[in-house]
Specification:
The protein is an alpha+beta fold and 331 residues long. The protein has 2 domains: 53 residues, no CATH class; 255 residues, Sulfite Oxidase, Chain A, domain 2 (Alpha-Beta Complex). The protein contains 10 helices and 13 strands. A hairpin with a 2-residue loop joins strand 8 and strand 9. The structure holds ligand MTE.
Length: 331
């Protein structure tokens, strides 16, 4: 047992299981007649509960039904659900804002594994069941600011990234966390040959203290429902004080590193997109102002401009992470 579950509804003896031992446990269950044919026989005996393992979707559904309201949500009105799921940036599905909703209709999450690597005591390839099972979910309404100067207010559902990372026992050498999105041109049309200038996978990274900050959320849902493919199913990051490109979608790899990783947008244009990418109205993008933002939904008649807030309004909670740093050079 790596961390004690705070969720009374979760199985008490849960262990996060590296894939190899996960499969061998299944083999053992099979040979003991608890799965498959043995399962049918057992479930016909009154009082014997089915031993079938819950799927990740079943685990998630019951957790979504019992998620708790976070006490510190912004009181600003949330952007309507229809806009959150139809105005997206997800280059794996195409570069247009409506490409993700249009091109993700047939996206299947399964099969999915999350590869944990690098400076950790518990590396392995974990199932979504293993990832989700011990974490109670919270509903958190965050401001969300894209580097392109549009913004939303989104009711995400998730759990603190720190709670997940601690379960893998990072070593003292772990100073950064690097994240990767799935590469699968069959599932992501934007990754098919010649369709993009991005060299896949999409990569993002955080300093360890940013990753462990209580505002950094591992998101599995939005508006109380399971995350849709266009928003980064089955799990994506949400770092509310940073520009949206840091909030990587559809994560399949989390690696703990000694050195700062190179991210996708740095590789594409390092003079425009830095590693930190903290929302900052005082530091403009080389090609446009960051002093204001268009809050969605909007229109050409009503662009709904509003001033951008330092650290996207989370200055009180996160400014100390950057004490003494020059935010113009560390943008
Ligand atoms: N993650 C991946 N894998 N690929 C992407 O293209 N786009 C980023 C971020 N995460 C992106 C990604 C950008 S630029 C933004 S603004 C947000 O996702 C958009 O999230 P949303 O579509 O849920 O609003």
């Amino acid at each position: 047992m790596l961390i004690k579950s705070k969720d009374n509804t979760a199985p008490k003896s849960f262990e996060i299981t590296p894939e190899t031992s996960y499969w061998s446990r299944r083999e053992w269950l099979k040979s003991a007649g608890i799965m498959g044919a043995g399962l049918a026989a057992l479930s016909s005996v009154p009082g014997v509960v089915s031993a079938r393992e819950e799927s990740w979707q079943e685990i998630l559904n019951s957790k979504l039904a019992s998620s708790r309201k976070w006490a510190h949500s912004t009181q600003e009105p949330p952007t309507p659900y229809k806009d959150v799921i139809s105005y997206n940036n997800f280059y794996e599905f195409g570069t247009g804002k409506s490409d993700p909703v249009e091109n993700s209709k047939d996206f299947k999450v399964d099969p999915w594994r999350v590869h944990i690597a690098g400076e950790v005591g518990k590396p392995g390839r974990y199932t979504l069941e293993d990832i989700f099972r011990p974490h109670p979910l919270e509903d958190r309404v965050y401001r969300f600011r894209c580097v392109e100067a549009w913004s939303m207010v989104v009711p995400w559902v998730g759990f603190p990234l720190a709670d997940l990372l601690k379960r893998f026992e990072p070593t003292t050498k772990a100073k950064y966390v690097r994240f990767e999105t799935l590469v699968d041109p069959d599932r992501f049309p934007g990754q098919r040959f010649g369709r993009s200038t991005i060299s896949w996978p999409y990569v993002e990274g955080l300093r360890m203290d940013e990753a462990m900050h209580p505002l950094t959320l591992m998101v599995v849902g939005v508006y109380g429902k399971t995350l849709l493919p266009q928003n980064g199913a089955p799990l994506r990051l949400m770092v509310p004080w940073k520009y949206g490109f840091k909030s990587i979608k559809s994560i399949v790899k989390i690696e703990f590193l000694e050195k700062e990783p190179k991210t996708t947008w740095q590789q594409l244009a390092s003079q425009e997109y830095g590693f930190f990418a903290n929302v900052n109205p005082e530091v403009d993008h080389p090609r446009w102002s960051q002093k204001r933002e268009r809050r969605l939904p909007n229109s050409i008649w009503d662009p709904n401009w509003m001033p951008t807030q330092k650290f996207n309004g989370y200055e009180e909670q996160v400014a100390s992470l950057y004490a003494g740093m020059n935010l113009r050079t560390h943008f």
